[in-house]
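Customer ticket, subject: "Can you confirm the structure for DoxX family protein?"

Message body: Hello, I'm evaluating your service for our small team and ran a test protein. I'd like someone to confirm that this is what the system normally returns, since I don't have a reference to compare against.
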Amino acid sequence: MSFAERKERFMDFMGLGGPASLSLTIFAELFCSILLILGLATRLATIPLLITALVIMSVHHWEFFGDHDLIVALLVGYVAVLLLGPGSFSLDKLIARK
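Agent reply: Thanks for trying us out. I re-ran your input and got the following:
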């Protein structure tokens, strides 16, 4: 979607400003998700995704059920990946074997 249209209307997270907050969200949701899918730097890539999910939950007043229940599922999944680490079919495991 158009970055230029959304950057000024985006939420100001921790006083960073709308454009910086939107850039950090795009980084987390695009690049960190790709790293998570590949299983590369899994635990490190999960941290920005967790922060993004927590910010989304706070914007929606910590409503765990209802219209925003998908974010709760993602949050639980991110916590599980952070605690359990990469799986056996990840690039992290492949690199660790060598």
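A couple of notes from the result: The helical segments are 3-6, 18-38, 42-59, 69-84, 91-97. Residues 18-38 form the longest helix (21 residues). Feel free to reply with more questions.
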